[in-house]
């Protein structure tokens, strides 16, 4: 399992060779950590070289060999570290944008260049007068080149996979951002449409009913027009203000009375909202989409229709709003994208208003149909209510 | 000529008052037409057409059971279909292009009179009904705009037992699915639920562009992936946006997370 630090730091330029050892991947990258890592890394290399020396030359003393390799390893290691530190800072942007080959070359060349002053520093400290002469012989240069290329190779092992992961993550993030933006736009468009108007299909079918009723049943026709006017008025004002639960219920009542006239015996409905809850302020357009869903996806597609019940009740500190139907139920599968119920939109709105305080739960309504419950924190809605009431009073004054 | 045979029609509309009103207006405008029956839904309309073999069918587009388009598709080629719709701009455009009869609700006498005149001419002269094949194919493509569903069936809802209730979880809310013995675990922001559907069966029903199999036993919802990490050994793990644990990607599926 990767550590959180690793997830948080996909930056490759500052990867330390010590991270070849999994244990050292757990600490977050910093200048101090890298300096400490370089010291540990140098010491490990010194140990390895000292061991190799006494294996090759059994007469040599391990202590003397270790002292020499330790000094050289620290001098060379910190010199490389310093060069890379300066180089990374100086060419930060160039390194970030460079291709894999250029970066590989950079990480191969800088250490090789840094090795020579590192050696010279070591000779100075150990007071080895003929060191510089030895250093610039072809055979020493060749062995230094080979050694540094080996180390560069090891480092590539660390940062190539990281770079890949970082790029893959960036690609996925971009794709997600694009999809999210598109979905958000679509959701906004749907929501605005929902707010702004009664669905044309609903409107024309209702008017068709009025036309069919005018001659034979003028009283029913009149009632239907009145309900339609009430619905249009309520819809126009519902979206713009934080209304009361009671005003949302009035809108639903007008909507359901019209539908009951149209659907005849196929629709049976009731609204059960206690009077003391009707005065509570609630966010706009909470119940309307749920009722439209219940009609459109639950009852209308069902040949025999069914019952729709809207209820509100208190449950401790929460306000529960419930829309239950005995329709065909939500089908497990659907053509097209998403659940098709616009519930993500409702959830997003509630999350924006209440964070984790509100919830939307959907369950099968036994024996058939669907029940959607919105739970709102009561204190918050009461507080919003007070604020809303104050605002309303201020506006009307 | 029809040799005195009565011309018959059926009407299908899930709102009975509208069907009755159309029947009444037809009686006034075309007294000789016999209304052989009125259907209240798609299957009834289909049965009525099969039983009565009418010359003409007035079909509402949105009906329970079967849509008017589906009923028309299943009928014989000699049936003259008139679509009746309240508001389907896309369908109306298609009808116009295909010269197929339609009337808009609320039905006006003027418009219905035109339709009746055209139908009379065609049926009495025994002219063939306009072919619906091309039109229905066009409309099938327009189904989403018509509010009718189309495309590949995809899983949209997971039914999971939680206590005595059956909870419905939208697949969009699922972070990932994990095979778990005989069950499949469904992980969401809220927690974990168990379902009996095997992972392999789920895989075939999910949208492959949004749900990726990342392991023999894991399908992840891409929208819930925060970052991917590849370690030295090439193992890829996914961090999630709304859950603390990480998800392992097996070697067989790791290529999907390579840089592009």
Keywords for this entry:
heterodimer; A: 397 residues; alpha+beta; Heat Shock Protein 90; five-stranded mixed β-sheet; 65% helix; rod-shaped; disordered C terminus; B: 260 residues; alpha/beta; Rossmann fold; OB fold (Dihydrolipoamide Acetyltransferase, E2P); five-stranded antiparallel β-sheet
What does this structure look like?
The complex is a heterodimer of chains A (397) and B (260). Chain A is 65% helix and 10% strand. Chain A has two domains: 4-184, no CATH class; 200-330 and 342-396, Heat Shock Protein 90, CATH 3.30.565.10. Chain A is built from 14 helices and six strands. Chain A is of the alpha+beta class and 397 residues long. In chain A, helix 3 crosses helix 5 (100-126). Chain A has helices at residues 4-8, 31-56, 62-90, 92-97, 100-126, 131-135, 138-196, 200-214, 218-238, 245-263, 275-278, 287-299, 343-354, 378-396; strands at residues 267-272, 306-315, 318-325, 333-335, 359-364, 370-377. Chain A starts with a helix and ends with a helix. Chain B has 260 residues and is α/β, with parallel strands linked by helices. Chain B folds into two domains: 8-141, Response regulator (Rossmann fold), CATH 3.40.50; 157-257, LytTr DNA-binding domain (OB fold (Dihydrolipoamide Acetyltransferase, E2P), Beta Barrel), CATH 2.40.50.1020. Chain B is 30% helix and 32% strand. The longest helix of chain B has 16 residues, at 109-124. Chains A and B meet through helix 7, helix 8, strand 4 and strand 5 of A and helix 1, strand 6, strand 7, strand 8 and strand 14 of B. Strand 5 of chain A pairs antiparallel with strand 8 (165-170) of chain B.
């Amino acid at each position: 399992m990767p550590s959180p630090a690793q997830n948080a730091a996909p930056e490759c330029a500052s990867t330390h060779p010590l991270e070849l050892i999994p244990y050292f991947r757990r600490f977050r990258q910093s200048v101090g950590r890298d300096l400490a890592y370089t010291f540990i890394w140098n010491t490990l290399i010194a140990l390895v070289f000292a061991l190799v020396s006494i294996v090759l030359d059994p007469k040599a003393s391990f202590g003397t060999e270790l002292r020499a390799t330790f000094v050289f390893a620290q001098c060379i290691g910190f010199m490389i570290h310093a060069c890379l530190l300066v180089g990374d800072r100086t060419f930060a942007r160039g390194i970030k944008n460079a291709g894999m080959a250029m970066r590989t070359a950079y990480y191969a060349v800088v250490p090789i260049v840094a090795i020579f002053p590192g050696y010279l520093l070591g000779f100075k400290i150990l007071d080895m007068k003929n060191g510089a002469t030895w250093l610039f012989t072809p055979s020493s240069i060749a062995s230094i080149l080979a050694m540094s290329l080996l180390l560069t190779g090891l480092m590539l092992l660390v940062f190539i996979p990281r770079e890949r992961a970082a790029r893959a993550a960036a690609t996925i993030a971009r794709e997600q951002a694009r999809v999210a933006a598109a979905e958000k736009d679509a959701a906004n468009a749907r929501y605005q449409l929902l707010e702004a108007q009664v669905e044309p299909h609903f409107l024309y079918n209702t008017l068709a009913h009025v036309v069919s009723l005018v001659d034979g049943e003028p009283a029913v026709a009149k009632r239907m027009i009145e309900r339609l006017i009430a619905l249009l008025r309520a819809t126009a004002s519902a979206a713009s203000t934080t209304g009361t639960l009671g005003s949302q219920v009035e809108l639903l009542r007008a909507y359901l009375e019209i539908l009951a006239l149209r659907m005849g015996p196929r629709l049976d409905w009731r609204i059960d909202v206690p009077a003391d809850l009707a005065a509570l302020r609630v966010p706009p357009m909470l119940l309307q989409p749920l009722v439209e869903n219940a009609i459109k996806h639950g009852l209308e597609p069902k040949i025999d229709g069914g019952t729709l019940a809207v209820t509100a009740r208190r449950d401790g500190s929460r306000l529960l709003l419930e829309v239950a139907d005995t329709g065909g139920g939500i089908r497990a599968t659907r053509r097209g994208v998403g659940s098709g119920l616009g519930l993500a939109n409702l959830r997003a709105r509630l999350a924006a208003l209440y964070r984790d305080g509100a919830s939307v739960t959907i369950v099968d309504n036994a024996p058939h149909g669907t029940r959607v419950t919105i739970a709102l924190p009561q204190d918050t809605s009461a507080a919003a209510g007070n604020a809303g009431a104050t605002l309303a009073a201020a506006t009307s004054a | 000529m029809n040799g005195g045979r009565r011309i018959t029609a059926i009407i299908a509309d899930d709102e009975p008052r509208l069907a009755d009103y159309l029947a009444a207006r037809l009686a006034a405008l075309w007294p000789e037409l016999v209304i052989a029956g009125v259907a209240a839904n798609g299957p009834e309309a289909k049965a009525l057409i099969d039983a009565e073999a009418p010359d003409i069918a007035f079909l509402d587009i949105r009906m329970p059971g079967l849509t008017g388009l589906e009923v028309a598709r299943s009928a014989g080629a000699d049936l003259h279909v008139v679509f009746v719709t309240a508001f389907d701009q896309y369908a109306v455009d298609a009808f116009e292009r295909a010269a197929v009869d339609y009337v808009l609700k609320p039905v006006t006498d003027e418009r219905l009179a035109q339709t009746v005149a055209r139908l009379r001419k065609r049926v009495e002269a025994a002219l063939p009904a306009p072919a619906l094949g091309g039109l229905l194919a066009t409309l099938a493509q327009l189904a989403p705009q018509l509010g009718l569903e189309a495309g590949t069936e995809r899983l949209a809802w997971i039914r999971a037992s939680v206590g005595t209730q059956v909870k419905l979880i939208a697949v969009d809310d699922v972070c990932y699915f994990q095979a778990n013995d005989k069950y499949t675990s469904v992980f969401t922001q809220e927690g974990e639920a168990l379902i009996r559907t095997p992972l392999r069966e789920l895989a075939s029903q999910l949208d492959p562009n949004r749900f990726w199999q990342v392991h023999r036993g894991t399908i992840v919802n891409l929208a819930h992936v925060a970052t991917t990490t590849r370690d030295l050994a090439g193992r890829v793990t996914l961090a999630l946006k709304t859950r603390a644990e990480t998800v392992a990607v097996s070697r067989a599926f790791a290529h999907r997370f390579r840089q592009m």
